[in-house]
Sequence to fold (111 residues):
Amino acid sequence: MTEVEIYKNLKDELWKIKDWWNMYGLHYSGGNGGVGEIRSVEVSATIYYQQSNGSKNYHESSGLFNKTFGKILQKHPELFKETIEVLEKQLQEQAGKARVEHEQIMRDSGL
Fold:
């Protein structure tokens, strides 16, 4: 995949994420009305730890941990916003890579 393609995909995905996030806290009238809220969060974690050569090295979090941590995340919407900010920064960095690639293509083609 080219840097330009990666940029376009990230940009499209970020647009979907922002559109989704903009529903949070927004008033709606369907289903007796209300305000957009976080209802569920699915999460899992993997710890890399290898006690000795040949032993297990990837350790998945338990279902109970995942469920409980998801409930905690629901109470911290600022982490969702921070995630979007990190993705926006990644998009800007990727834009720079895509620009360099595009400029190289233009030079290579004699334009």
